[in-house]
Amino acid sequence: MGGVGDAGAAAAPAGPPRHKVIEWAHLDKRKYFLYGPALNVVTNAILYPTKLVKVRMQAHHGSEGRYRSVLHAFQSIVRKEGAASLYKGFGVNSFSVVSSQLYITAYEVFRAWGRGRGHTEAVSNLGAGVAASAIQQAIAVPVDVVSQRLMVDRRRDGAKTPRAVVRGILATDGVMGFWKGSAASLLTLAPTSGIFWASYGVLRRVQISWHDPQAQPGFTKTLAEQAAASWLAGCFSAMCTNPLDIVKTRIQVNAKQGGAVSIASAFRTLVREDGVWLVTKGLQARMLHMSFNSVILMTVYETVKYYSVLSPPVGQDPT
């Protein structure tokens, strides 16, 4: 994820230049493009098991083998398939680091463009989040399609391999099979991204309004505030868009061989299977994944931005 761009000041005078809000123009791009991908690899490794459990819970249908809760899912996977199974598909999913860097860069560029044309911060954040997510899909959807099919393989020996999955997709759907569910992904991820950034920006402005205007909060305090804001924004955006995420996951994991599954038909099938409870299917796991993901990624990304600030500062602090 990209950052809304606010970071606190270092307590020591020798620290990076101080900005209430770190904008795109404030960044040393060489540092930014070095630190960002490196830390994305680390955070992806930490967060991956929660993503696998979310996909398992959302993709499952029928009563047999259903996970009762997130904890039950973790315990069942480790007991029946081994702890290493929590990282099924991780190698393929690691390519998402490329799409993540593309996403955060596009977000910052579009946000700066919106702010430069006089749009409010909330509107700029919302629009930038939607646009960045749309651009990211070119890389993210193929990675998701392959890695999710590996994630849902419940065999202990992990009989499915990335090569076998790729060959299967090519045999049944051709090259465009790697973008199966791209419309559903866009329908899900674009509003999720927009809602997250808009709500995160609002929460950060509220937090900043509580500060003494004459005081500069320390870096540690600022990171704690960013973590709290990203946790709340992650939970809120997950709740708002969970049914869309379920449809996306079902299309990508359980698409009919040799033919496309539409968003409407996937939705009808899910309603028939789960009824009104569809809105809560996998919600606990998704909120856990998104809130934890948001806290880790935003903390890391705001730190990357903080240490990528140009010296001397460029321009004036935004108000």
Blueprint of the fold:
Layout: H1 29-59, H2 70-81, H3 90-93, H4 96-116, H5 121-151, H6 162-173, H7 182-209, H8 219-254, H9 263-274, H10 283-306
Helix pairs in contact: 1-4, 1-10, 4-5, 5-7, 7-8, 8-9, 8-10
What does this structure look like?
This protein has 319 residues and is an all-alpha fold. Helix content is 66%, strand content 0%. It has 10 helices and no strands. The chain has helices spanning 29-59, 70-81, 90-93, 96-116, 121-151, 162-173, 182-209, 219-254, 263-274, 283-306. α1 (29-59) crosses α4, α4 packs antiparallel against α5 (121-151) and α8 (219-254) packs across α10. It is globular.
- Between the first and last Cα atoms, what is the distance in angstroms? 24 Å
Bulk shape? globular
The proportion of strand residues reads under 5%
Count of strand segments: 0
> Percent range for helical residues?
55-70%
Structural class: mainly alpha
Q: What's the quaternary structure here?
A: single chain
Order of helices and strands: HHHHHHHHHH
Q: Biggest sheet, open or closed, and with what strands and sense?
A: none
Low-confidence stretches: 1-14
Radius of gyration: 20 Å
Features:
mainly alpha, globular, single chain, 319 residues
Brief description of this entry?
66% of the residues lie in helices and 0% in strands.
